[in-house]
Amino acid sequence: MIILAFILTTASSLFGIILLIFNPDLIAGLVQSISLPTLMVSYAVSIATSLLFFFGVFDLVRRFKLAAKKPPSANPSTF
Question: Does a structural domain hold residue 75?
Fold first, then answer.
């Protein structure tokens, strides 16, 4: 989940940067064209990314707690 959140955040940022690099004249039009659907999509992406980060970190904490409670095995594996 954390990786998916990073990918979503990176893709969103790269799309904005590429749009501005290839057509810098659209900046003024883009700022003026912000409407309710645009804001809703932007907020939806931000909320989805935040939830993915939250649940990803929550899952990692749960896994670390479970791993800490397990007794050491007789054959420890090496990484």
Answer: no
